[in-house]
Amino acid sequence: MSTTGVLVAPGFLDRERTIAGPGFSRWLIPPAALAIHLCIGMAYGFSVFWLPLSKAVGITDPIACPAGMGFLARMVSTTCDWKISELQWMFILFFVFLGSAAALGGGWLERAGPRKAGVVAAVCWCGGLVISAVGVMLHQIWLLWLGSGVIGGIGLGLGYISPVSTLIKWFPDRRGMATGMAIMGFGGGAMIGAPLADRLMKSFATATTVGVWETFLMLAAGYFIFMLAGAFGYRVPPEGWQPRGFDPALAKKKALITDKHVSLAVAWRTPQFWLLWAVLCLNVTAGIGILGMASPLLQEVFGGRLIGVAATFDQLTPAQKGQIAAIAAGFTGLLSLFNIAGRIFWASLSDRVGRKVTYAVFFLLGIALYASIPWTAAAGSLALFVAFFCVILSMYGGGFATVPAYLADLFGTRMVGAIHGRLLTAWSAAGVLGPVLVNYIREYQLDHGVARAQAYSVTMFILAGLLAVGFRCNWLIKPVDPRHYMSAAQLEETAPPVTAALALGRETAADAGPGLIVVAAWLAVWIPLGWGIWVTLQKAVLLFK
Protein backbone atom coordinates (compact mmCIF):
# COMPACT_ATOMS: atom_id res chain seq x y z
CA MET A 1 0.00 0.00 0.00
CA SER A 2 1.22 3.50 -0.79
CA THR A 3 2.58 5.60 2.08
CA THR A 4 1.14 8.77 0.59
CA GLY A 5 -1.72 8.69 3.05
CA VAL A 6 0.76 8.84 5.95
CA LEU A 7 2.58 11.89 4.58
CA VAL A 8 -0.33 13.96 3.32
CA ALA A 9 -2.97 15.14 5.77
CA PRO A 10 -6.46 14.31 4.49
CA GLY A 11 -9.20 16.93 4.23
CA PHE A 12 -11.59 17.42 7.12
CA LEU A 13 -14.44 15.64 5.33
CA ASP A 14 -12.35 12.76 4.02
CA ARG A 15 -12.85 9.23 5.28
CA GLU A 16 -9.36 9.09 6.73
CA ARG A 17 -10.20 11.90 9.16
CA THR A 18 -13.18 10.00 10.54
CA ILE A 19 -11.29 6.93 11.80
CA ALA A 20 -12.08 6.61 15.50
CA GLY A 21 -9.39 6.76 18.14
CA PRO A 22 -9.10 5.32 21.66
CA GLY A 23 -12.01 6.03 23.98
CA PHE A 24 -14.61 6.43 21.24
CA SER A 25 -17.99 4.82 21.93
CA ARG A 26 -19.74 3.11 19.06
CA TRP A 27 -23.05 4.13 20.69
CA LEU A 28 -22.50 7.64 19.32
CA ILE A 29 -23.03 6.43 15.75
CA PRO A 30 -26.76 5.55 15.92
CA PRO A 31 -27.86 9.02 17.15
CA ALA A 32 -25.67 10.62 14.47
CA ALA A 33 -27.45 8.52 11.86
CA LEU A 34 -30.83 9.29 13.42
CA ALA A 35 -30.11 13.01 13.20
CA ILE A 36 -29.88 12.74 9.42
CA HIS A 37 -32.72 10.25 8.95
CA LEU A 38 -35.17 12.25 11.09
CA CYS A 39 -34.64 15.21 8.74
CA ILE A 40 -34.87 13.46 5.38
CA GLY A 41 -37.78 11.36 6.67
CA MET A 42 -39.94 14.48 6.25
CA ALA A 43 -40.31 13.28 2.64
CA TYR A 44 -43.12 11.04 3.96
CA GLY A 45 -44.87 14.10 5.43
CA PHE A 46 -44.88 16.37 2.38
CA SER A 47 -48.62 15.82 1.88
CA VAL A 48 -49.13 18.43 4.61
CA PHE A 49 -48.16 21.04 1.98
CA TRP A 50 -50.53 19.94 -0.82
CA LEU A 51 -53.69 21.78 0.24
CA PRO A 52 -51.98 25.09 1.15
CA LEU A 53 -49.96 25.03 -2.08
CA SER A 54 -53.10 24.31 -4.11
CA LYS A 55 -54.39 27.75 -3.10
CA ALA A 56 -51.10 29.68 -3.04
CA VAL A 57 -52.56 32.30 -5.42
CA GLY A 58 -56.17 32.33 -4.24
CA ILE A 59 -55.12 32.13 -0.54
CA THR A 60 -58.61 31.16 0.71
CA ASP A 61 -59.82 29.18 -2.31
CA PRO A 62 -57.97 27.76 -5.33
CA ILE A 63 -58.09 29.75 -8.57
CA ALA A 64 -58.50 27.30 -11.43
CA CYS A 65 -56.49 27.72 -14.63
CA PRO A 66 -58.46 28.40 -17.83
CA ALA A 67 -59.75 25.22 -19.45
CA GLY A 68 -57.76 25.70 -22.62
CA MET A 69 -54.40 26.44 -20.93
CA GLY A 70 -51.68 23.98 -21.98
CA PHE A 71 -49.36 22.04 -19.69
CA LEU A 72 -46.29 24.27 -20.17
CA ALA A 73 -48.35 27.41 -19.69
CA ARG A 74 -49.73 26.08 -16.38
CA MET A 75 -46.21 25.29 -15.19
CA VAL A 76 -45.12 28.95 -15.44
CA SER A 77 -48.44 30.71 -14.80
CA THR A 78 -48.56 33.09 -11.86
CA THR A 79 -52.30 33.79 -12.05
CA CYS A 80 -53.86 30.39 -11.30
CA ASP A 81 -53.27 27.66 -8.73
CA TRP A 82 -51.64 24.24 -9.07
CA LYS A 83 -53.56 20.99 -8.89
CA ILE A 84 -52.72 18.56 -6.10
CA SER A 85 -52.01 15.90 -8.75
CA GLU A 86 -49.29 18.20 -10.14
CA LEU A 87 -47.82 18.84 -6.71
CA GLN A 88 -47.69 15.12 -5.93
CA TRP A 89 -45.01 14.70 -8.57
CA MET A 90 -42.61 15.95 -5.91
CA PHE A 91 -43.41 12.83 -3.88
CA ILE A 92 -42.84 10.54 -6.86
CA LEU A 93 -39.58 12.30 -7.74
CA PHE A 94 -38.39 11.91 -4.12
CA PHE A 95 -38.28 8.14 -4.36
CA VAL A 96 -37.20 7.90 -7.97
CA PHE A 97 -34.12 10.03 -7.25
CA LEU A 98 -33.61 8.46 -3.83
CA GLY A 99 -33.09 5.09 -5.51
CA SER A 100 -31.06 6.55 -8.37
CA ALA A 101 -28.75 8.55 -6.09
CA ALA A 102 -28.28 5.61 -3.73
CA ALA A 103 -27.47 3.29 -6.64
CA LEU A 104 -25.03 5.66 -8.36
CA GLY A 105 -23.53 7.18 -5.20
CA GLY A 106 -23.01 4.00 -3.16
CA GLY A 107 -19.55 3.25 -4.55
CA TRP A 108 -18.45 6.87 -4.07
CA LEU A 109 -19.73 6.77 -0.47
CA GLU A 110 -17.52 3.77 0.36
CA ARG A 111 -14.48 5.71 -0.88
CA ALA A 112 -15.42 9.15 0.45
CA GLY A 113 -16.74 8.01 3.81
CA PRO A 114 -19.99 8.75 5.68
CA ARG A 115 -19.07 12.27 6.82
CA LYS A 116 -18.65 13.68 3.32
CA ALA A 117 -21.77 11.85 2.13
CA GLY A 118 -23.75 13.25 5.07
CA VAL A 119 -22.65 16.82 4.33
CA VAL A 120 -23.53 16.48 0.64
CA ALA A 121 -26.91 15.04 1.66
CA ALA A 122 -27.54 18.05 3.94
CA VAL A 123 -26.63 20.51 1.17
CA CYS A 124 -28.92 18.76 -1.35
CA TRP A 125 -31.91 18.18 0.94
CA CYS A 126 -31.88 21.64 2.53
CA GLY A 127 -30.80 23.39 -0.66
CA GLY A 128 -33.73 21.72 -2.39
CA LEU A 129 -36.08 23.20 0.22
CA VAL A 130 -34.62 26.67 -0.40
CA ILE A 131 -35.11 26.30 -4.18
CA SER A 132 -38.68 25.14 -3.52
CA ALA A 133 -39.27 28.22 -1.35
CA VAL A 134 -38.18 30.39 -4.29
CA GLY A 135 -40.50 28.36 -6.51
CA VAL A 136 -43.44 29.12 -4.20
CA MET A 137 -42.54 32.83 -4.05
CA LEU A 138 -42.35 33.05 -7.87
CA HIS A 139 -45.20 30.53 -8.31
CA GLN A 140 -43.14 28.26 -10.58
CA ILE A 141 -43.96 24.63 -9.95
CA TRP A 142 -41.00 23.40 -12.00
CA LEU A 143 -38.74 24.89 -9.31
CA LEU A 144 -40.50 22.73 -6.70
CA TRP A 145 -40.00 19.65 -8.86
CA LEU A 146 -36.33 20.54 -9.40
CA GLY A 147 -35.63 21.69 -5.84
CA SER A 148 -37.35 19.22 -3.55
CA GLY A 149 -38.02 16.46 -6.09
CA VAL A 150 -34.73 16.13 -7.96
CA ILE A 151 -32.06 17.82 -5.80
CA GLY A 152 -33.83 16.93 -2.57
CA GLY A 153 -34.28 13.37 -3.81
CA ILE A 154 -30.53 13.09 -4.36
CA GLY A 155 -30.04 14.26 -0.78
CA LEU A 156 -32.54 11.63 0.35
CA GLY A 157 -30.60 8.84 -1.35
CA LEU A 158 -27.18 9.84 -0.06
CA GLY A 159 -28.49 10.62 3.42
CA TYR A 160 -30.37 7.32 3.63
CA ILE A 161 -27.37 5.11 2.84
CA SER A 162 -24.70 7.29 4.51
CA PRO A 163 -24.70 5.45 7.89
CA VAL A 164 -25.48 1.89 6.77
CA SER A 165 -21.99 0.56 6.08
CA THR A 166 -20.57 2.36 9.12
CA LEU A 167 -23.20 1.00 11.51
CA ILE A 168 -22.72 -2.57 10.27
CA LYS A 169 -18.96 -2.29 10.80
CA TRP A 170 -19.38 -0.86 14.31
CA PHE A 171 -22.00 -3.49 15.27
CA PRO A 172 -20.98 -6.81 13.68
CA ASP A 173 -22.60 -8.48 16.68
CA ARG A 174 -25.93 -6.61 16.28
CA ARG A 175 -26.22 -5.70 12.61
CA GLY A 176 -30.01 -5.72 12.51
CA MET A 177 -30.47 -3.70 15.67
CA ALA A 178 -27.92 -1.08 14.60
CA THR A 179 -29.42 -0.44 11.17
CA GLY A 180 -32.91 -0.61 12.67
CA MET A 181 -32.09 2.18 15.13
CA ALA A 182 -30.96 4.47 12.32
CA ILE A 183 -33.54 3.63 9.66
CA MET A 184 -36.22 4.01 12.34
CA GLY A 185 -35.57 7.73 11.98
CA PHE A 186 -36.65 7.79 8.36
CA GLY A 187 -40.06 6.47 9.39
CA GLY A 188 -40.25 8.99 12.24
CA GLY A 189 -39.24 12.09 10.29
CA ALA A 190 -42.78 12.84 9.15
CA MET A 191 -44.14 12.49 12.70
CA ILE A 192 -41.98 15.45 13.70
CA GLY A 193 -41.89 17.41 10.45
CA ALA A 194 -45.57 17.26 9.45
CA PRO A 195 -47.08 18.72 12.67
CA LEU A 196 -44.18 21.17 12.93
CA ALA A 197 -44.74 22.34 9.35
CA ASP A 198 -48.48 22.65 9.99
CA ARG A 199 -47.87 24.91 12.98
CA LEU A 200 -45.28 26.98 11.10
CA MET A 201 -47.62 27.50 8.12
CA LYS A 202 -50.43 28.65 10.42
CA SER A 203 -48.01 31.03 12.14
CA PHE A 204 -46.71 32.53 8.87
CA ALA A 205 -50.07 32.64 7.04
CA THR A 206 -51.42 36.13 6.27
CA ALA A 207 -53.90 37.68 3.87
CA THR A 208 -51.24 37.51 1.11
CA THR A 209 -49.45 34.20 1.80
CA VAL A 210 -50.34 30.67 2.86
CA GLY A 211 -47.05 30.46 4.79
CA VAL A 212 -45.43 27.65 2.79
CA TRP A 213 -42.29 29.34 1.47
CA GLU A 214 -41.50 30.73 4.91
CA THR A 215 -41.96 27.24 6.37
CA PHE A 216 -39.66 25.74 3.74
CA LEU A 217 -36.91 28.20 4.73
CA MET A 218 -37.34 27.55 8.45
CA LEU A 219 -37.23 23.79 7.95
CA ALA A 220 -34.18 24.11 5.68
CA ALA A 221 -32.28 26.07 8.34
CA GLY A 222 -33.17 23.70 11.18
CA TYR A 223 -32.56 20.55 9.15
CA PHE A 224 -29.21 21.83 7.89
CA ILE A 225 -27.90 22.34 11.43
CA PHE A 226 -29.23 18.96 12.60
CA MET A 227 -27.88 17.06 9.57
CA LEU A 228 -24.44 18.64 9.82
CA ALA A 229 -24.29 17.67 13.49
CA GLY A 230 -25.08 14.11 12.48
CA ALA A 231 -22.54 14.08 9.64
CA PHE A 232 -19.75 15.44 11.85
CA GLY A 233 -20.62 12.81 14.46
CA TYR A 234 -19.82 9.95 12.09
CA ARG A 235 -16.71 7.86 12.77
CA VAL A 236 -15.52 4.65 11.12
CA PRO A 237 -13.73 1.88 12.99
CA PRO A 238 -10.12 1.07 12.11
CA GLU A 239 -9.65 -1.84 9.71
CA GLY A 240 -9.99 -5.14 11.56
CA TRP A 241 -11.61 -3.65 14.68
CA GLN A 242 -13.98 -5.91 16.62
CA PRO A 243 -16.08 -5.15 19.73
CA ARG A 244 -15.08 -6.74 23.00
CA GLY A 245 -16.39 -10.27 23.40
CA PHE A 246 -17.32 -10.68 19.73
CA ASP A 247 -16.08 -13.84 18.03
CA PRO A 248 -16.42 -13.67 14.21
CA ALA A 249 -15.99 -17.45 14.03
CA LEU A 250 -19.19 -17.98 16.03
CA ALA A 251 -21.12 -15.51 13.88
CA LYS A 252 -20.00 -17.31 10.73
CA LYS A 253 -21.62 -20.52 11.93
CA LYS A 254 -25.06 -18.96 11.49
CA ALA A 255 -26.76 -19.67 8.17
CA LEU A 256 -26.02 -17.29 5.27
CA ILE A 257 -23.45 -15.23 7.23
CA THR A 258 -20.04 -14.92 5.56
CA ASP A 259 -16.79 -13.41 6.79
CA LYS A 260 -15.69 -12.84 3.18
CA HIS A 261 -16.43 -9.86 0.95
CA VAL A 262 -17.96 -9.39 -2.51
CA SER A 263 -17.32 -6.29 -4.65
CA LEU A 264 -20.16 -4.14 -5.98
CA ALA A 265 -19.28 -5.00 -9.58
CA VAL A 266 -19.76 -8.70 -8.84
CA ALA A 267 -22.54 -8.57 -6.22
CA TRP A 268 -25.20 -7.05 -8.45
CA ARG A 269 -24.67 -9.80 -11.03
CA THR A 270 -25.35 -12.64 -8.58
CA PRO A 271 -28.76 -14.35 -8.28
CA GLN A 272 -28.76 -13.53 -4.55
CA PHE A 273 -28.80 -9.80 -5.32
CA TRP A 274 -31.75 -10.00 -7.69
CA LEU A 275 -33.70 -12.36 -5.47
CA LEU A 276 -33.25 -9.93 -2.58
CA TRP A 277 -34.16 -7.05 -4.94
CA ALA A 278 -37.45 -8.82 -5.65
CA VAL A 279 -37.97 -9.55 -1.94
CA LEU A 280 -37.60 -5.87 -1.01
CA CYS A 281 -39.63 -4.63 -3.98
CA LEU A 282 -42.59 -6.91 -3.28
CA ASN A 283 -42.62 -6.23 0.47
CA VAL A 284 -42.47 -2.47 -0.12
CA THR A 285 -45.04 -2.52 -2.96
CA ALA A 286 -47.64 -4.04 -0.64
CA GLY A 287 -46.89 -1.70 2.27
CA ILE A 288 -46.40 1.61 0.49
CA GLY A 289 -49.61 1.23 -1.49
CA ILE A 290 -51.57 0.94 1.75
CA LEU A 291 -49.60 3.69 3.51
CA GLY A 292 -50.44 6.17 0.76
CA MET A 293 -54.18 5.33 0.87
CA ALA A 294 -54.63 4.74 4.62
CA SER A 295 -56.89 7.72 5.29
CA PRO A 296 -59.41 7.26 2.44
CA LEU A 297 -59.31 3.48 2.92
CA LEU A 298 -60.56 3.68 6.52
CA GLN A 299 -63.15 6.35 5.69
CA GLU A 300 -64.61 4.55 2.69
CA VAL A 301 -64.65 1.08 4.26
CA PHE A 302 -66.28 2.03 7.58
CA GLY A 303 -68.05 5.27 6.65
CA GLY A 304 -70.50 6.45 9.29
CA ARG A 305 -69.74 3.51 11.59
CA LEU A 306 -66.65 5.45 12.69
CA ILE A 307 -68.94 7.99 14.40
CA GLY A 308 -71.85 5.69 15.28
CA VAL A 309 -73.98 6.57 12.25
CA ALA A 310 -75.59 3.89 10.05
CA ALA A 311 -74.55 5.41 6.73
CA THR A 312 -72.09 4.78 3.94
CA PHE A 313 -69.36 7.28 3.10
CA ASP A 314 -71.41 8.79 0.23
CA GLN A 315 -74.43 9.27 2.50
CA LEU A 316 -72.55 11.37 5.07
CA THR A 317 -72.94 15.14 5.37
CA PRO A 318 -69.87 17.39 4.87
CA ALA A 319 -69.70 17.91 8.65
CA GLN A 320 -69.76 14.16 9.28
CA LYS A 321 -67.07 13.60 6.65
CA GLY A 322 -64.95 16.14 8.51
CA GLN A 323 -65.39 14.12 11.69
CA ILE A 324 -64.33 10.83 10.14
CA ALA A 325 -61.41 12.55 8.37
CA ALA A 326 -60.05 13.53 11.79
CA ILE A 327 -60.41 9.90 12.94
CA ALA A 328 -58.66 8.70 9.77
CA ALA A 329 -55.76 11.07 10.55
CA GLY A 330 -55.37 9.22 13.85
CA PHE A 331 -55.31 5.92 11.96
CA THR A 332 -52.57 7.22 9.66
CA GLY A 333 -50.56 8.39 12.66
CA LEU A 334 -50.92 5.03 14.38
CA LEU A 335 -49.64 3.29 11.25
CA SER A 336 -46.63 5.62 11.30
CA LEU A 337 -45.88 4.61 14.89
CA PHE A 338 -45.94 0.93 14.00
CA ASN A 339 -43.85 1.64 10.91
CA ILE A 340 -41.20 3.10 13.22
CA ALA A 341 -41.48 0.48 15.97
CA GLY A 342 -41.30 -2.32 13.43
CA ARG A 343 -37.96 -1.08 12.14
CA ILE A 344 -36.21 -1.62 15.45
CA PHE A 345 -38.28 -4.64 16.63
CA TRP A 346 -38.02 -6.81 13.51
CA ALA A 347 -34.43 -5.83 12.75
CA SER A 348 -33.38 -6.71 16.32
CA LEU A 349 -35.29 -9.98 16.14
CA SER A 350 -33.45 -10.83 12.92
CA ASP A 351 -30.17 -10.82 14.88
CA ARG A 352 -31.51 -13.81 16.80
CA VAL A 353 -33.51 -15.79 14.25
CA GLY A 354 -31.74 -14.75 11.03
CA ARG A 355 -32.75 -12.46 8.14
CA LYS A 356 -34.21 -15.22 5.96
CA VAL A 357 -36.53 -16.42 8.70
CA THR A 358 -37.55 -12.84 9.49
CA TYR A 359 -38.53 -12.17 5.89
CA ALA A 360 -40.37 -15.50 5.74
CA VAL A 361 -42.46 -14.28 8.69
CA PHE A 362 -43.11 -10.98 6.88
CA PHE A 363 -44.49 -12.78 3.87
CA LEU A 364 -46.45 -15.60 5.54
CA LEU A 365 -47.99 -13.38 8.20
CA GLY A 366 -48.60 -10.66 5.62
CA ILE A 367 -50.45 -13.06 3.32
CA ALA A 368 -52.74 -14.09 6.18
CA LEU A 369 -53.39 -10.52 7.29
CA TYR A 370 -54.04 -9.06 3.83
CA ALA A 371 -56.39 -11.92 2.98
CA SER A 372 -58.26 -11.34 6.26
CA ILE A 373 -58.79 -7.58 5.80
CA PRO A 374 -62.00 -7.95 3.70
CA TRP A 375 -63.44 -10.20 6.42
CA THR A 376 -62.71 -7.65 9.20
CA ALA A 377 -64.32 -4.93 7.08
CA ALA A 378 -67.43 -7.01 6.35
CA ALA A 379 -67.75 -7.92 10.03
CA GLY A 380 -67.42 -4.27 11.02
CA SER A 381 -64.57 -5.06 13.40
CA LEU A 382 -62.68 -1.76 13.57
CA ALA A 383 -60.29 -3.04 16.26
CA LEU A 384 -59.16 -6.03 14.18
CA PHE A 385 -59.00 -3.95 10.99
CA VAL A 386 -56.70 -1.41 12.68
CA ALA A 387 -54.64 -4.09 14.46
CA PHE A 388 -54.02 -6.04 11.24
CA PHE A 389 -52.87 -2.96 9.37
CA CYS A 390 -50.60 -1.92 12.27
CA VAL A 391 -48.84 -5.29 12.12
CA ILE A 392 -48.61 -5.03 8.31
CA LEU A 393 -46.99 -1.59 8.52
CA SER A 394 -44.59 -2.79 11.22
CA MET A 395 -43.35 -5.42 8.76
CA TYR A 396 -43.14 -2.82 6.00
CA GLY A 397 -40.76 -0.78 8.16
CA GLY A 398 -39.00 -3.90 9.41
CA GLY A 399 -38.20 -4.89 5.84
CA PHE A 400 -36.27 -1.67 5.26
CA ALA A 401 -34.33 -2.05 8.49
CA THR A 402 -33.49 -5.73 8.04
CA VAL A 403 -32.29 -5.65 4.43
CA PRO A 404 -28.89 -3.93 5.05
CA ALA A 405 -27.97 -6.67 7.55
CA TYR A 406 -29.22 -9.29 5.06
CA LEU A 407 -26.84 -7.82 2.46
CA ALA A 408 -23.92 -7.81 4.90
CA ASP A 409 -24.61 -11.45 5.77
CA LEU A 410 -24.54 -12.43 2.09
CA PHE A 411 -21.88 -10.12 0.61
CA GLY A 412 -19.71 -9.09 3.57
CA THR A 413 -19.19 -5.59 4.94
CA ARG A 414 -16.46 -4.12 2.70
CA MET A 415 -18.86 -2.82 -0.01
CA VAL A 416 -22.21 -3.18 1.75
CA GLY A 417 -23.04 0.54 1.52
CA ALA A 418 -22.59 0.54 -2.25
CA ILE A 419 -24.53 -2.73 -2.66
CA HIS A 420 -27.34 -1.38 -0.46
CA GLY A 421 -27.49 1.73 -2.61
CA ARG A 422 -27.88 -0.35 -5.75
CA LEU A 423 -30.57 -2.49 -4.08
CA LEU A 424 -32.67 0.58 -3.21
CA THR A 425 -33.72 0.85 -6.85
CA ALA A 426 -36.26 -1.76 -5.71
CA TRP A 427 -37.74 0.94 -3.47
CA SER A 428 -38.00 3.34 -6.41
CA ALA A 429 -39.85 0.71 -8.43
CA ALA A 430 -42.17 -0.15 -5.53
CA GLY A 431 -42.79 3.55 -4.83
CA VAL A 432 -44.42 3.81 -8.26
CA LEU A 433 -45.95 0.31 -8.51
CA GLY A 434 -47.63 0.20 -5.07
CA PRO A 435 -49.66 3.44 -5.20
CA VAL A 436 -50.54 2.93 -8.87
CA LEU A 437 -51.73 -0.62 -8.20
CA VAL A 438 -53.92 0.35 -5.24
CA ASN A 439 -55.31 3.54 -6.80
CA TYR A 440 -56.13 2.14 -10.23
CA ILE A 441 -57.76 -1.04 -8.92
CA ARG A 442 -59.86 1.10 -6.58
CA GLU A 443 -60.93 3.41 -9.41
CA TYR A 444 -61.71 0.45 -11.69
CA GLN A 445 -63.89 -1.09 -8.99
CA LEU A 446 -65.76 2.15 -8.36
CA ASP A 447 -66.25 2.78 -12.10
CA HIS A 448 -67.88 -0.66 -12.39
CA GLY A 449 -70.39 -0.06 -9.63
CA VAL A 450 -68.65 -1.68 -6.69
CA ALA A 451 -69.55 -0.05 -3.38
CA ARG A 452 -66.79 1.98 -1.73
CA ALA A 453 -66.74 -0.31 1.28
CA GLN A 454 -65.88 -3.29 -0.96
CA ALA A 455 -63.63 -1.48 -3.45
CA TYR A 456 -60.44 -2.56 -1.69
CA SER A 457 -61.21 -6.29 -1.27
CA VAL A 458 -59.73 -7.38 -4.60
CA THR A 459 -56.69 -5.20 -3.93
CA MET A 460 -56.01 -7.00 -0.64
CA PHE A 461 -56.03 -10.39 -2.36
CA ILE A 462 -53.70 -9.14 -5.11
CA LEU A 463 -51.27 -7.77 -2.52
CA ALA A 464 -51.40 -11.12 -0.71
CA GLY A 465 -50.48 -12.77 -4.02
CA LEU A 466 -47.48 -10.46 -4.42
CA LEU A 467 -46.30 -11.46 -0.95
CA ALA A 468 -46.57 -15.13 -1.93
CA VAL A 469 -44.18 -14.44 -4.81
CA GLY A 470 -41.89 -12.63 -2.37
CA PHE A 471 -41.91 -15.64 -0.04
CA ARG A 472 -40.77 -17.86 -2.90
CA CYS A 473 -37.94 -15.46 -3.83
CA ASN A 474 -36.76 -15.32 -0.22
CA TRP A 475 -36.88 -19.12 0.01
CA LEU A 476 -34.55 -19.41 -3.01
CA ILE A 477 -31.77 -17.26 -1.47
CA LYS A 478 -28.65 -19.34 -0.76
CA PRO A 479 -25.09 -18.43 0.31
CA VAL A 480 -23.02 -16.66 -2.35
CA ASP A 481 -20.73 -18.93 -4.39
CA PRO A 482 -17.15 -18.65 -3.02
CA ARG A 483 -15.84 -17.86 -6.51
CA HIS A 484 -17.44 -14.40 -6.16
CA TYR A 485 -15.40 -13.44 -3.08
CA MET A 486 -12.79 -10.69 -3.37
CA SER A 487 -9.18 -11.83 -3.60
CA ALA A 488 -6.47 -10.76 -1.17
CA ALA A 489 -5.20 -8.27 -3.77
CA GLN A 490 -8.68 -6.75 -4.19
CA LEU A 491 -9.11 -6.47 -0.44
CA GLU A 492 -5.75 -4.70 -0.18
CA GLU A 493 -6.69 -2.34 -3.00
CA THR A 494 -10.01 -1.32 -1.41
CA ALA A 495 -8.71 -1.12 2.18
CA PRO A 496 -8.81 2.33 3.80
CA PRO A 497 -5.45 4.14 3.45
CA VAL A 498 -3.15 4.44 6.43
CA THR A 499 -3.31 7.98 7.74
CA ALA A 500 -1.01 10.14 9.80
CA ALA A 501 -3.35 9.71 12.75
CA LEU A 502 -3.02 5.94 12.62
CA ALA A 503 0.73 6.18 12.13
CA LEU A 504 0.96 8.12 15.38
CA GLY A 505 -0.45 5.24 17.38
CA ARG A 506 -4.24 5.42 17.04
CA GLU A 507 -4.46 1.93 15.58
CA THR A 508 -7.36 0.79 17.74
CA ALA A 509 -10.60 2.30 18.91
CA ALA A 510 -11.87 1.49 22.35
CA ASP A 511 -15.33 0.01 22.73
CA ALA A 512 -16.20 2.57 25.38
CA GLY A 513 -19.47 2.34 27.23
CA PRO A 514 -22.12 5.07 27.40
CA GLY A 515 -20.97 8.37 28.89
CA LEU A 516 -22.35 11.89 29.22
CA ILE A 517 -21.66 12.67 25.56
CA VAL A 518 -23.52 9.54 24.49
CA VAL A 519 -26.49 10.40 26.71
CA ALA A 520 -26.56 13.97 25.34
CA ALA A 521 -26.45 12.70 21.76
CA TRP A 522 -29.36 10.33 22.32
CA LEU A 523 -31.40 13.04 24.06
CA ALA A 524 -30.82 15.37 21.10
CA VAL A 525 -32.64 12.97 18.79
CA TRP A 526 -35.16 11.47 21.21
CA ILE A 527 -36.60 14.77 22.47
CA PRO A 528 -37.97 15.79 19.04
CA LEU A 529 -38.90 12.18 18.25
CA GLY A 530 -40.72 11.91 21.58
CA TRP A 531 -42.65 15.10 20.78
CA GLY A 532 -43.68 13.66 17.42
CA ILE A 533 -44.83 10.41 19.06
CA TRP A 534 -46.87 12.35 21.64
CA VAL A 535 -48.62 14.42 18.95
CA THR A 536 -49.35 11.25 16.97
CA LEU A 537 -50.75 9.40 20.00
CA GLN A 538 -53.10 12.30 20.73
CA LYS A 539 -54.56 11.94 17.22
CA ALA A 540 -54.68 8.14 17.44
CA VAL A 541 -56.87 8.30 20.56
CA LEU A 542 -59.71 9.58 18.34
CA LEU A 543 -59.91 6.12 16.75
CA PHE A 544 -61.25 4.51 19.89
CA LYS A 545 -63.33 7.29 21.45
At a glance:
This protein is 69% helix and 0% strand. By secondary structure, the protein is mainly α.
If you had to describe this structure to a student in words, what would you say it looks like?
The chain starts with a helix and ends in a 5-residue tail after the last helix. It has helices at residues 4-7, 29-40, 50-53, 71-76, 84-87, 89-112, 114-138, 141-161, 164-170, 175-204, 212-233, 248-252, 264-267, 271-292, 294-302, 318-353, 355-379, 382-411, 416-423, 425-447, 457-475, 488-494, 500-503, 516-540. The chain has 545 residues and is mostly helical. The protein has two domains: 25-61 and 70-238, Up-down Bundle (Growth Hormone, Chain: A); 250-499, MFS general substrate transporter like domains (Growth Hormone, Chain: A), CATH 1.20.1250. The chain is 69% helix and 0% strand.
List key phrases describing it.
mainly alpha; 2 domains; Growth Hormone, Chain: A; 0% strand; disordered N terminus; 545 residues; globular
What kind of oligomer do you see?
single chain
Range of strand content = under 5%
Shape assignment = globular
Can you count the beta strands? 0
Helix and strand pattern: HHHHHHHHHHHHHHHHHHHHHHHH
CATH class of the largest domain: Mainly Alpha
CATH fold naming of the largest domain = Growth Hormone, Chain: A
Could you tell me the radius of gyration in angstroms? 24 Å
Q: Structural class, from secondary structure content?
A: mainly alpha
CATH architecture of the largest domain: Up-down Bundle
